[in-house]
Amino acid sequence: MNLILFGEPGVGKGTQAKNLWKKFGIPHVATGDILRKAISEETSLGKEVAPYLKVGKLAPDTLVSGLVVERLDAEDCQAGFVLDGYPRTLPQVETLEAILKEKGKKIDKVISFEVPLEILLKRIMSRGRADDNAETVKTRLVDYKNLTEQVKDYYASRKLLVAIDGLGTTEEVFERTLASLS
Fold first, then answer.
1. In 80-109, which positions are buried (b, 16+ CB within 10 angstroms) versus exposed (e)?
2. Which pLDDT score, from 0 to 100, does residue 97 have?
3. Gyration radius of the chain's alpha carbons
4. Cis peptide, bond prior to residue 87, ω within 30 of zero
5. For the segment 118-173, what is each residue's pLDDT rounded down to a tens digit?
6. Which of 55, 125, 149, 180 is 20 to 30 Å from the Cα of 133, by its Cα?
7. What local confidence, expressed as pLDDT, does residue 102 receive?
8. What is the mean pLDDT of residues 17-35?
9. Taking the model in full, what pTM does it have?
């Protein structure tokens, strides 16, 4: 099963991806975590993307796509994966589809978690990450909305997108997520 979890920062994609991993054994591929790790380890990629993340901007498509390609080639992703934070742009969608087609795979479902903006702001600010200050959060949410509407429309037009109410307990959201997969 190859899934994409879609939604603004703070909707709970990471939490639900971990639940899916526990239930189905498919790895959680979170581009945000990969980028933060590269920055903390001061890898060449980390040094290249750090300036973007510090001001709340998204890393360039080529860098993020390169990371995802590398990660999807890993042994644990061969039976499936849960993408979190990718793709966010149409060029990333094109790259992902080309990669998957080459491997004889496809995206099975795109799950979009829907949460009101005021709740998102509270959730994000309570995480306590260094890159989660008020200005950065606002910039990230505006960028996200501007860039991803076309991606959401793309997957909706292919009948792969399902919207899930992201409010409620973790368990309630996970039950809705599982129901969307059947």
1. bbbbbbbbbbeebbebbeeeeeeeebebeb
2. 95
3. 16
4. yes
5. 888 888 888 777 767 777 787 778 777 888 899 999 999 999 999 999 999 999 99
6. 149
7. 93
8. 92
9. 0.85
Q: Quick check: 22 and 173 in contact, CB under 8 A?
A: no
The total of other beta-carbon atoms located within 10 Å of residue 118's CB is 8
CA-based angle 90:177:126, to the nearest 5? 80
Angle of CA points 107, 156, 144, to nearest 5°: 90
Instruction: With beta carbons less than 8 A apart as the criterion, state whether 3 and 160 touch.
Output: no
Select from 134, 131, 160, 159 the least CA-distant residue to 58: 131
* pLDDT class of 84 with cuts at 50, 70, 90: very high
| Length of the chain as a residue count | 182
C-alpha–C-alpha distance, residues 181 and 178, integer Å:
5
129: number of Cβ within 10 Å: 13
Task: Please give the distance of CA 67 from its chain centroid, rounded to a whole number.
Answer: 13
Distance CA 15, CA 166 (A): 11
Return the structure tokens found at 69.
């390609």
**What are the structure tokens assigned to 67, written together?**
């990371």
DSSP letter string, 64-84: HHHHHHHHHTSGGGTT-EEEE
